[in-house]
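Thread: Newbie trying to understand structure tokens

Hi all, I'm a second-year student working on a class project, and my supervisor (Dr. K.) asked me to get a predicted structure for one chain before our next meeting. I've only ever worked with sequences, so writing a 3D structure as a token string is new to me. If someone could post the tokens and maybe explain what I'm looking at, I'd be very grateful. Here's the chain:
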Amino acid sequence: MEPIRNCSFDKLKIGDSVTVTLTVARLDPDQRRVTLDCTMTNQDGQLVPSGTEEVIAPPEAHLREPGSRHRDLLAAAQGAPRVRTAVVHPVDAVSLLGAVEAARAGLIEPVLVGPEAKIRQAAAQAQVDLAPYRLVPTAHSHAAADAAVALARAGEVAALMKGALHTDELMHAVVARDTGLRTGRRISHVFAMDVPTYPRPLFITDAAINVYPTLEDKRDIVQNAIDLAHALGIAAPRVAILSALETIYPKIPSTLEAAALCKMAERGQITGAIVDGPMAFDLAVSENAARTKGFVSPVAGQADILVVPDLEAGNMLAKQLEYLGQAQVAGIVLGARVPIMLTSRADGPLARLASCALAALLVQKNGAPAVIGTP
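---
Reply by user tm_fold:
Sure, no problem. This is what the structure looks like when written as tokens:
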């Protein structure tokens, strides 16, 4: 960043140890200017005369408050009907509150599925009144997953939401061949990332369901993510098929699969998006990196969807952005008869609400009947 006006350093001496605290006081995105309040203390804890610092952000810096895109997502979902949602095994305060807060926000109409005594105990702990909500009692978490899937098959709910059970417990019921929620499409997961330093919404797939997807699996994974982008109003999302490099290299299978996926898009086997790859991560998200390396692509530096080689790569990428890049994360499972909100115990309230907003917008686009009223 280029400094314009410095804090006052006139009372500092050579050899002093100084602790500087900078607080963002004002943002001017149009001029790329940031005004910082500057407070300094010396090694004796004495306050040194402080002031303000105004800086100009570099061209690729995007000045945006963390979480603002997820809040925009919530605002977009306010016009969608509330989605009747089976909340599976909400037997702790965190998962129960997540469902109740989404109901209060006008996003879902929860149907609580699980052991009644444990749900009521969680409600007492969270000081939640269960009177407004339907409760479907089951003996344990496995039975809760089966019952929730049965509700979806019967058309009584239009979405599922994971509570305090393991993901594999829920997905075992979802993918059961005779009693589950399979369709002709491979089931996959999409992380919706709100990255403060990136100028657009970013989607990562698949980082939670398919461990080592085949080429055929990846075709469905890509199409599922494209359909989600369409539901969110992105008419022609740019899809980057990630690998370690941007050229075809037979010893790295993901480069071959990326090339095949691009050909599938050319031949209409993948539709509704601009698809390119293989592509390294830096080229997918940085126009400057693409210019420096002479990489020409309609996707480079502008990717909306990142398709990772496998679950390990995707999971690490999403968590790195979350914990090192201050990204907010929401997640949803696609390709089943109904969308499934796979929230984590570590997710904050905004992430949980954003996941519900994704489901609401998907249900609205697909015209599913199991919705009630309007917010």
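A couple of things are worth pointing out once you decode it. The first strand starts at residue 2 and ends at 5. The radius of gyration is 24 Å. Feel free to ask follow-ups in this thread.
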